[in-house]
Amino acid sequence: MVIKVYVASSTGSLAVKKHQQAVVGFLEANRIDFQEVDITMLEEQRLWMYRNIPRDKQPEKGNPLPPQIFNDDRYCGDYEDFFLSKENNTVFAFLGLSSQPSVKVSECAYTRSTLF
Question: Which residues contact 105 (CB under 8 A, 6 or more apart)?
Answer without folding.
Answer: 111
